[in-house]
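Good morning,

Attaching, inline, the backbone tokens for the sequence recovery test we're adding to the shared suite. The designed sequence is right after.
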């Protein structure tokens, strides 16, 4: 007979305490009036007897008796365990987009050829964008000059 304890799935956000991890559980629900989907994140303190679960891992936690002032959950199962290098890479990727090369080195996934192709594509896109903006600016300038000329002619006719 399965027990009726609540079980939640979340991501470990802190493992700095002894035999305790902080698990962030994200839930989504619709606003009762406006219908917009809202995301809420709640943190739970969970017991980790082995101190072996790193930050970034996905875990399933289960309700238990009170173990301390704020700890009422126990880690039941580690669903996806992350290595420290991958966790550092995720933190770097989130903090600075220009550090993609460092992230790739930590993960060990991107080759030098792929990096060169990405840089070339980014450079070509930037050049096309600059050219398009220059053309738009020239068109706007030409239109403004034409309107100014018409206004000057209308003013001259009004004075005569």
């Amino acid at each position: 007979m399965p027990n009726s304890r609540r079980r939640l799935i979340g991501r470990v956000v802190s493992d700095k305490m002894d035999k305790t991890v902080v698990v962030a559980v994200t839930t989504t629900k619709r606003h009762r009036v406006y219908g917009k989907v809202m995301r809420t994140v709640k943190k739970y303190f969970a017991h980790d007897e082995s101190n072996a679960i790193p930050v970034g891992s996905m875990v399933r936690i289960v309700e238990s008796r009170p173990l301390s002032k704020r700890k009422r959950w126990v880690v039941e199962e580690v669903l996806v365990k992350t290595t420290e290098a991958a966790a550092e890479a995720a933190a770097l990727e989130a903090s600075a987009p220009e550090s993609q090369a460092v992230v790739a080195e930590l993960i060990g996934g991107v080759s030098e050829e792929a990096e060169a192709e990405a840089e070339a594509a980014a450079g070509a896109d930037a050049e096309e964008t600059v050219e398009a903006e220059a053309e738009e600016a020239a068109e706007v300038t030409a239109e403004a000059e034409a309107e100014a000329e018409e206004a000057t002619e209308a003013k001259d006719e009004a004075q005569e």
